[in-house]
Prior knowledge:
The chain has about 160 residues and is mainly alpha-helical. It has one domain (about 15-155). The chain contains 5 helices and 2 strands, in the order αααββαα. The protein has a two-stranded antiparallel ribbon.
Amino acid sequence: MEQTFFSTFLLFNLPLIIKLLVATALGAVIGVQRTLSHKMAGMRTYAFVSLGSCLLVLISLLATKDFIGISNFDPMRMAAGIVMGIGFLCGGIIIYHNDRVEGITTAAGMWVANGIGIAVAFGYFTIAIITTFLALFIFSTLWGVEEQFRKEAAK
C-alpha cells in the first residue's frame, strides 16, 4: 500500500502534533475553570498561552537540531524569552480598580499555563499534566478556602 503525502506528513510529524495538541488541551482545561468563574481570561486565552509556549520551544528545539554546528543555539533562550513575553501580557491583566488590585490570580494562572506549554514542548507530559491539575486545585478549591477566610475576617 502506497502512503499518501498526508499520511507521511502525519507520521513524520506526529510527536510535534501531539505536543501541540496536549499543550492546547491542558491550557484550555485550566481556562474552563476561569470561564466558569466569569474571568476575562478564559479557555481561549489559556489555550493560546500554553500552545504558544509549546510552539516557540518546539521551534527552538528544531532550530537547534537543524543548525547544530552551523550556529550556537540554546533552547532555553527561547523559553526565557517566552517567560518575559508572558510577563508583559500578565502585567496588562493586573489593574487597580475601586481601591483594589484585580487580575493577579489570572495573571499567575497564565504564567503557569505558559510553563505547561514549555513543559509539553520539551516532552515532559507528566509534569505538565500534574501542574494542570494543581492549577485547577488552586483556582477552584483554594478560592473557596480564601472566601471562608474573608468571611471569618469580616465578622
